[in-house]
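RECORD TYPE: inverse folding
INPUT: structure tokens
STRUCTURE:
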């Protein structure tokens, strides 16, 4: 029996230059292994500053972008791939750049009718001198993922977190400060424009930080989340609306918070290249719907292939099985 991606050359972009490099290496490895099982000829590319030169030599049929964070997820690598006229997975230049910039994406989402937290951007030195809003609140980089550089400031805190002005801080001069939304941590995948399901994340540490996301046993996932029906449906609807408003394609994951005391649901951000590690939420949501990891990777790859080069029009030829599984 012919394997679905037999004969296709896929370059898996992994690693990269961001603070999320280690996560990307795991995502990329898992996806590359799946692609090989599906019959593809796979080139594993640790994406450095010579990426354009490497891909020009490889000339793959499609690039599976398993990069996370700055440079790989913010529109920069997407621009390189557009310039090389190569097909690639996930969202394009504009959607990637918008989603990565928390302030700009919140403005777009709010205009589209998605409920987002308040707050705004502040100079990090100003934010470190005194509370810019009454605690509890959240301080985070404006353009990072995987909860890197995120601090919770609780009621009664004497001062803001001083880490944001430490010499080790490398996440820009402005920080996003938002009111802390108590309650449930939720995630909703969107595939081919349709909400997949809703997961409740219960972090072992009390905060869904980097370790809770990627560490063994760092969090418990309840899939589907035990929510009132109107909240579950609203989480799906808002995630679909956010995906469309930012111009995303392929698979995205929206992160939400639900205040179950005051019945308030807010969407925090959209991840245009969700993790594909063994503890990641999107593969888990797909599995709950009967789509195993290999089929998920197959769909993401075929979706990119069918769109054609430069993120544009569909190609006349595509691997088999196109369409959401």
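DESIGNED SEQUENCE:
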């Amino acid at each position: 029996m012919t394997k679905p991606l037999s004969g296709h050359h896929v370059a898996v972009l992994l690693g990269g230059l961001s603070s999320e490099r280690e996560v990307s290496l795991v995502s990329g490895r898992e996806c590359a292994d799946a692609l090989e099982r599906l019959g593809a000829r796979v080139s594993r590319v640790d994406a450095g500053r010579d990426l354009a030169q490497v891909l020009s030599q490889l000339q793959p049929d499609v690039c599976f972008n398993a990069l996370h964070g700055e440079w790989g997820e913010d529109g920069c690598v997407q621009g390189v791939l557009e310039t090389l006229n190569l097909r690639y997975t996930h969202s394009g230049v504009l959607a990637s750049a918008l989603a990565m910039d928390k302030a700009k994406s919140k403005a777009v989402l709010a205009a589209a009718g998605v409920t987002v937290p308040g707050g705004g951007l502040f100079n990090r030195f100003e934010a470190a001198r005194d509370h810019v809003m009454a605690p509890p609140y959240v301080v985070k980089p404006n353009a990072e993922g995987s909860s890197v550089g995120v601090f919770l400031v609780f009621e009664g805190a004497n001062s803001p977190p001083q880490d944001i002005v430490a010499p080790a801080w490398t996440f820009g001069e402005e920080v996003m400060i938002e009111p802390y939304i108590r309650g449930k941590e939720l995630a909703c995948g969107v595939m081919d424009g349709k909400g997949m399901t809703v997961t409740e994340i219960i972090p072992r540490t009390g905060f869904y930080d980097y370790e809770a996301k990627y560490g063994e046993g760092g969090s418990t996932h309840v899939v589907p989340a035990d929510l009132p029906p109107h909240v579950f449906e609203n989480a799906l609807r808002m995630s679909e609306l956010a995906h469309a408003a930012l111009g995303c394609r392929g698979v995205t994951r929206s992160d939400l918070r639900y205040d179950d005391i005051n019945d308030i649901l807010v969407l925090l951000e959209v991840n245009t290249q969700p993790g594909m590690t063994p503890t990641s939420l999107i593969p888990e949501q797909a599995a709950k719907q009967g789509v195993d990891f290999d089929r998920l990777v197959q769909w993401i790859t075929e979706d990119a292939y069918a769109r054609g080069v430069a993120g544009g029009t569909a190609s006349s030829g595509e691997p088999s099985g196109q369409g959401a599984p």
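NOTES: Confidence is low (pLDDT under 50) at residues 207-215, 310-325.
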